[in-house]
Amino acid sequence: SRPNLALIGATGAVGTVMRDIVSSRDDVWGEVRLVASPRSAGKVLRVRGEDVVVRALAPEVFDGIDIAIFDVPDEVSAEWVPIAAERGAIVIDKSGTFRMDPDVPLVVPEVNPHDARQRPRNIISTPNCTTLSMMAAMGALHAEYGLQELVVASYQAVSGAGVAGSARLYDEVEALAGDRSIGQAAGDVRKALANKLPDDSPFPAPVAFNVVPWAGSYKDGGWASEELKLRNESRKILGIPGLKVSATCVRVPVITTHSLAVHARFEREITVADAHRVLEAAPTVVLMDDPANGVFPTPADVVGTDPTYVGRVRQAVDFPNTLDLFVCGDNLRKGAALNAAEIAELVAAEF
Ligand code: 2RA
């Protein structure tokens, strides 16, 4: 029989892409129920070509639901995911709340699909979008060459901070556009924005005409939460508890699609040709690597699509068994909604 699916957080940035993905992939679902905060309840949204009335999050919305995909803030997941699971739904949760729980698998279908079957709490977590942006590529390389170390710098899109993140960059660009004196004196971008926009940015510095070396919340030692997630989640997904990872996460003026510069050391010797062969064979990875002819992935060229794009593959000159490469992945699709949908389809196949 066809399982019934609930989408919790149906009106957010990821929820919107989620409805699109559920509507465009092979339809394996019975009912698709849309759920959001009481504020959004009663809205009519389209999914699979039909109008569906959004229901307010309440215990009863899980009645008759087999699989529930949550994309809501951490504290909402902390409260409601266990309720959904107790009421019999298998939950796929996008928040950070359960990802490192040893009784909750953290799944990327290309890398560790088998982990989705061990779910003693009835919960499966889907990784942070920054981690996800490189997992298909790094998982494929790891499977043949044995990953040992990752040093990563991220270039993260503003929609990672939700609808408010995208709105802020559009507003900032509009506020600054046309003034060709801007961006040439210390603090002038900040000042111009303070005069024109409310002081409610989700980012700690201007993101237009700028880059911001901060994503997430403050953690001990001066780390940003995104940087630690990248480390901890990569270890768990790849099944390498001792993987050495160090990251610097940076917000850039891109609406959607995260990029990562990755410096990866392997157990075995690996050439650029080896990496090309592995990446070309990986079904969800697209290799765009011909820099002599200007071919490499950029967010603007791949946004709105499903694959993980890899380019700029180089053998590190001074580091043995080490590659440098550049990855782009749509943070709302593979980084969020698509990965959750793929996990949901894995589970649906059990029905
Ligand atoms: C961000 N990774 O880009 C986060 C979203 N979960 O802000």
From TrEMBL:
Print the keywords alphabetically: Amino-acid biosynthesis, Diaminopimelate biosynthesis, Lysine biosynthesis, Methionine biosynthesis, NADP, Oxidoreductase, Threonine biosynthesis
- In terms of domain of life, where is this protein from? Bacteria
**Which leading EC class covers this enzyme?**
oxidoreductase
**Limits of the Semialdehyde dehydrogenase NAD-binding domain:** 4-119
Per its record, what are the GO molecular function terms? aspartate-semialdehyde dehydrogenase activity
Q: Which InterPro entries match?
A: Asp_semialdehyde_DH, Asp_semialdehyde_DH_beta, Semialdehyde_DH_NAD-bd, Semialdhyde_DH_dimer_dom
Coiled coil, from the record: none
Q: Where does phosphate bind?
A: 99
Q: Which residues bind NADP(+)?
A: 11-14, 39-40, 159-160, 331
Signal sequence, renumbered to the chain: none
Report the EC code(s) recorded for this entry.
1.2.1.11
Catalytic activity reported? L-aspartate 4-semialdehyde + phosphate + NADP(+) = 4-phospho-L-aspartate + NADPH + H(+)
Q: Which NCBIfam families does the record cross-reference, listed alphabetically?
A: asd_B, PRK14874.1
Record-stated family: Belongs to the aspartate-semialdehyde dehydrogenase family.
Assembly state and interactors? Homodimer.
Protein name per UniProt: Aspartate-semialdehyde dehydrogenase
